[in-house]
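Z., the sequence and structure:
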Amino acid sequence: MNDNAPDNRNSAGDRTSPEDAQRQSFLERKDIRVSFSRYAIDAMSAMAQGLFASLLIGTILNTIGNLTGLETFNEMGGFATAVAGPAMAIAIGFALNAPPLVLYSLAAVGHAANAQGGAGGPLAVLVIAIIAAEAGKAVSKETKVDILVTPAVVIGVGGALAILAAPAIGAAASALGGFIMWATELQPFLMGIIVAAVVGIALTLPISSAAICAALGLTGLAGGAALAGCCAQMVGFAVISFRDNGVSGLVSQGIGTSMLQMGNIMRKPAIWIPPIVASAVCGSVSTCVFALQQNGPAIASGMGTCGLVGPIGLYSGWIADGIAPGVNEWLGMAIVCFVLPALVSLIVAALMRKASLIADGDMALDS
């Protein structure tokens, strides 16, 4: 027996064939790692950033143009919204560490997938851009004519999938989003609670609630509930952790992200209860009391108070629908997005502090 012979074993300790070992080595060299974290968290979060930097900013610019009468803002907004597909795909490729030629080629893939995917275009872009990017990474710099081969593979794979699969992916996402919105219209109280709680939790978790809402095209009454849940998480954590973090924590969580609390949540899950309760309450108030509809870009439904994008989305939706916001609209926005999240979270947190379930320092952020 040759003691010097290589012992090929996988991570479970089982022997692997030389072919499997070679394949694994190739994938490692190409940085192709099939994992939930990379695709469902890293890539989806990047997709949301791409969508934010194109469609959402474009919508805000359009709103400014409509309010001021300055057509320059509308033109800039049109330019931004027109490149939503390429922006999403390039952002996804960047998150997957795609080489330059792969990254640039994804622009065409993103445009094709978003156009073919229709209302569910963002989900189509997510799925197809991931496949095209990984295919491009596999062939990148493997030939002497890389400048031809890599773009051809990326655009060929991505373009074919856009034509063959994007319509079905988009239709499935649109159907699911439509079902949620229909169910919310049918059962506003129950669905308001469910949608707000689930999307709010997603916002605080290291996944992208904005990307989820965008992929499902979540607007209308369900979009309002989703927005309420996200606002409750951000405002809730900002106010109940004020004694631990002061003004800087109030700002970083209130208009930044409640995801900053994930480390503390892992250490003490009980601190998550006040914002989750606030999400449920705000969701039902949004649907049943104010009938708050978020008809701006679907991504705004999952942004909460981050950069005040959620409230801006509400306002842009009113303008797009030809609604002149009155007392009910402004009051609904203020109560659902800011006042009620703070009030409910503070009450629940106070009760939990009295019961010694939450203590000072539990929500302190690293300086």
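DSSP finds 16 helices and no strands in the chain. The chain has two domains: 36-170, 187-354.

Let me know what you think.
H.
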